[in-house]
Specification:
- The chain contains eight helices and nine strands.
- By secondary structure, it is an alpha/beta fold.
- It has a single domain, classed as 2-enoyl-CoA Hydratase, Chain A, domain 1 (Alpha-Beta Complex).
- Strands 1, 3, 4, 5, 7 and 8 form a six-stranded mixed sheet that branches. The chain has a three-stranded antiparallel sheet with strand order 2-9-6.
- Helix 2 links the parallel strand 3 and strand 4.
- It is elongated, with a radius of gyration of 21 Å.
- The C terminus is likely disordered.
Length: 232
C-alpha cells in the first residue's frame, strides 16, 4: 500500500463522486486519517456530500472553479408502491417481531411514529457529518458556521472556496505540485497512479456511482449522496 511505501512521500486523493452510503464513507475517512503522510484532495467534476466528507481527511483541499461540491447533509429515501399494488389488486402480507421491523416498506404508508424514528436517525448521522467537518476545518470554520453551510445545498468550487470549505482553486497538476512540496520532494515529483476503471456508460454521460436500480426497492438506508435528476 502507498501509505506503507517509504518511497511514497505524499498522496494525492482524486475525488469525482456524488457520495454514497454512510458507513463506507466513514471507513474511508478513518483509514485516510491513519496515513502519516501529507494528503492533498483534488476534486474533479464533483465531490459532493460523501465525496466532500472524504476530502476533509486531506491536509489541503483543491477544486476547480466549476466543481460541484458541498451538499452537506444526509438523505434517506425509498419508493412507495402501495398505490400501484392497490390498483392491480395485490396485497403484501408481513409477519414481524416488532412494531418497527418493516419500517420503510414500499407496500404501505409510513406511520408518524416510523417517520419520527427515521428522522431521528437522519439527524444523528447528520450531526456526525457536521462534527467531522467542524473538526477537519476547525482552523477556518466554527461548528456554527459549518451548520449554516450544511443544509444540503450544492456549491461551485469558487463558492466553496469563498465559504472556506476548501483551501484553494486548482486542478490535478496543481494538487500534485502541492503534494510534492508537502512531501519534501525536490524537482518534479514522480507520480504513481492507481485509477478506478469506468464503464462505457460513465464515460459517455459523465456520471459516476449512480445508485443501482434495486436500491429503489430496498429498505431505507442513510446516505451521504448528492443526486441530480436526469429529467423532470
Amino acid at each position: 500500500a502507498y501509505r506503507d511505501d517509504p518511497s511514497v512521500k505524499a498522496i494525492v486523493l482524486r475525488i469525482d463522486s456524488p457520495g454514497g452510503s454512510v458507513a463506507p464513507v466513514q471507513e474511508i475517512y478513518s483509514e485516510l486519517e491513519k496515513i502519516e503522510k501529507p494528503i492533498v484532495a483534488s476534486m474533479g467534476g464533483s465531490a459532493a456530500s460523501g465525496g466532500y466528507y472524504i476530502a476533509c481527511a486531506a491536509d489541503t483541499i483543491l477544486a476547480n472553479p466549476g466543481t460541484l461540491t458541498g451538499s452537506i447533509g444526509v438523505i434517506m429515501q425509498f419508493t412507495r408502491m402501495k398505490g400501484l399494488y392497490d390498483k392491480v389488486g395485490l396485497e403484501h402480507q408481513v409477519i414481524k417481531s416488532g412494531q418497527f421491523k418493516d419500517t420503510g416498506s414500499p407496500f404501505r404508508t409510513l406511520t408518524e411514529q416510523e417517520r419520527a424514528v427515521l428522522q431521528a436517525t437522519v439527524d444523528d448521522v447528520y450531526n456526525q457529518f457536521v462534527d467531522t467537518i467542524a473538526e477537519a476545518r476547525g482552523n477556518v470554520l466554527t461548528r456554527a458556521e459549518v451548520v449554516e453551510l450544511a443544509d444540503g445545498r450544492i456549491f461551485s468550487g469558487k463558492q466553496a472556496l469563498d465559504s472556506k470549505l476548501l483551501d484553494q482553486l486548482g486542478n490535478l497538476p496543481d494538487a500534485i505540485k502541492i503534494a510534492g512540496e508537502l512531501g519534501g520532494i525536490e524537482g518534479k515529483p514522480k507520480v504513481l497512479r492507481k485509477e478506478r476503471k469506468t464503464s462505457l456508460f460513465e464515460q459517455l454521460v459523465g456520471i459516476k456511482q449512480m445508485p443501482p436500480f434495486d436500491e429503489m426497492f430496498s429498505p431505507p438506508g442513510v446516505t451521504f449522496r448528492y443526486q441530480m435528476s436526469l429529467g423532470d
